[in-house]
């Protein structure tokens, strides 16, 4: 019998995924739950397991293609009854337009999914598209960008599933003068002829290289495209300001040296510097809650939970898994959680909810020897901490004595729309004190 392989929904707001690699070729056999292909979405990269054991007989979408969720991407040929252990699914009731399509459970992945309806013409609706109206679902990110630029998202041609407007669609629309076009379309028709508008400025052309030049052109991966879009959006959204503090971590490093063997033996985990920093951040975020907030329109949203994202460098990009409720975890719990997330990020085993919901981010450029960095804020957060490299330096102590100490620079990029310099410096002063006077009892 034949089994359809569908594009899974890797999160509530995810409407499509890009196939980055087929791990089996047509004609090759695959076991049930064995990785069959890799996908890349707005939130996470993941390996997708096979819904049944059999042979891959057809690939409907090649690597690099973006496919709506629940659409068939390949066909498996299985022996009779190989996939019959799961109960036959019943046809689900149609979901309202305001609700995102729920992820298909494994037992339902074999059913044929109807292709998405063609997008409705952009001029069909004069109101902004939103969840519940005829324009279809518009994600909060798209709605926010549209509001900031005074654009009706219903006038933006969508390339997503069912004509959905993606973040790339709205950004491209803005770059092409969409704001002016939308304003002109919304204005009443003039009663008399008017002069033609001035032509839009010509885009700057990229330099072209002639034949024989020693260059190589490589298409950006989906992850690299998303990183680029995210960084540009953050710079456009937040008023970035930076503060840098120098911290004496000699005492902290002695504790780490003293307890790292105990942690490996007792907890089976390496004790790195990052758990110390996360532990020092938690009381500071409680004391200065605006650093743990976000901005929505003209409102500041204070987050009650402390969910700290820890940036993980990958060979193919960067990802930020989230340590949820970090202030409720012990040092051993933090070390175990951070190491587990990093390992699964590199193995492409993260779940969508493990890269969402962060309220503050930590990145560690110092691991490669950098003195410090000035990172870009991870939207919609309002601050990010950068850890510099730890180096021995001569330091003047109390009483004018000079000693060799282990020093580390930490930098914080923060959104000056809501975080003032005085608040940022007081926040960092508390982090500095927590690291320099780290209580051994916390270990």
Give a written overview of the molecule.
By secondary structure, this protein is an alpha+beta fold. The chain has three domains: 2-90 and 101-108, OB fold (Dihydrolipoamide Acetyltransferase, E2P); 122-178, Dihydrolipoamide Transferase, CATH 4.10.320; 241-442, Chloramphenicol acetyltransferase-like domain (Chloramphenicol Acetyltransferase, 2-Layer Sandwich). It has helices at 140-148, 167-175, 178-186, 222-237, 250-266, 273-287, 331-346, 421-436, and strands at 2-6, 16-22, 29-30, 35-40, 45-49, 54-59, 66-68, 72-77, 240-248, 293-296, 299-302, 308-310, 312-314, 317-319, 322-323, 360-363, 383-396, 402-415. The chain has a six-stranded mixed β-sheet with strand order 9-18-17-16-12-15, with helices on one face. Strand 13 (312-314) and strand 14 form a beta hairpin. The longest helix has 17 residues, at 250-266. It is globular and about 80 Å long. The chain starts with a strand and ends in a 7-residue tail after the last helix. 33% of the residues are buried. Residues 81-136 and 179-193 have low confidence and may be disordered.
């Amino acid at each position: 019998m034949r089994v359809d392989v569908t594009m899974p929904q890797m999160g509530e707001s995810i409407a499509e995924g890009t196939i980055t690699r087929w791990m089996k070729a047509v004609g090759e056999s695959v076991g049930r739950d064995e990785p069959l292909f890799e996908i890349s979405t707005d939130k996470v990269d993941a390996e997708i397991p096979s819904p049944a054991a059999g042979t891959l007989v057809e690939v409907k979408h090649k690597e690099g293609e973006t496919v709506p969720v629940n659409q068939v991407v390949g066909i498996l040929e299985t022996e009779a009854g190989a996939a019959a252990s799961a109960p036959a699914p019943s046809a689900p009731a149609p979901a309202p337009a305001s609700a995102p399509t729920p992820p298909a459970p494994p037992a339902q992945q074999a059913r044929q999914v109807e292709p998405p309806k063609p997008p409705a013409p952009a001029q069909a609706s004069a109101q902004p598209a939103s969840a519940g109206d005829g324009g279809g679902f518009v994600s909060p990110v798209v709605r926010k960008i549209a509001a900031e630029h005074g654009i009706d998202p219903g006038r933006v041609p969508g390339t997503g599933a069912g004509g959905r407007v993606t973040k790339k669609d709205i950004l491209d629309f803005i770059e092409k003068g969409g704001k002016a076009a939308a304003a002109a379309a919304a204005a009443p028709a003039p009663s008399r002829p008017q002069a033609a508008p001035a032509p839009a400025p010509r885009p700057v052309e990229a330099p072209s290289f002639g034949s024989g030049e020693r260059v190589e052109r490589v298409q950006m991966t989906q992850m690299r495209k998303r990183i680029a879009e995210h960084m540009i959006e953050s710079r456009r959204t937040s008023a970035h300001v930076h503060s840098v503090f120098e911290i004496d971590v000699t005492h902290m490093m002695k504790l780490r040296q003293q307890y790292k063997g105990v942690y490996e033996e007792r907890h089976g985990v390496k004790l790195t510097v990052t758990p110390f920093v996360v532990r020092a951040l938690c009381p500071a975020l409680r004391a200065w809650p605006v650093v743990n907030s976000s901005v929505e329109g003209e409102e500041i949203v204070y987050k009650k939970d402390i969910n700290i994202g820890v940036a993980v460098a990958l060979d193919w990009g960067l990802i930020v898994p989230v340590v949820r409720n970090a202030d409720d975890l012990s040092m051993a719990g933090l070390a175990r959680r951070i190491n587990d997330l990093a390992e699964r990020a590199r193995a492409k085993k993260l779940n969508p909810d493990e890269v969402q919901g962060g309220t503050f981010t930590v990145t560690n450029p110092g691991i490669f020897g950098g003195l410090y960095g000035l990172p870009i804020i991870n939207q919609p957060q309002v601050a990010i901490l950068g850890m510099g490299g730890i180096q021995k330096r001569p330091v003047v102590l109390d009483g004018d004595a000079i000693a060799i100490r282990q020093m580390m620079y930490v930098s914080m990029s923060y959104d000056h729309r809501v975080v003032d310099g005085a608040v940022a410096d007081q926040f960092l002063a508390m982090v500095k004190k927590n690291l320099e006077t780290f209580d051994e009892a916390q270990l």
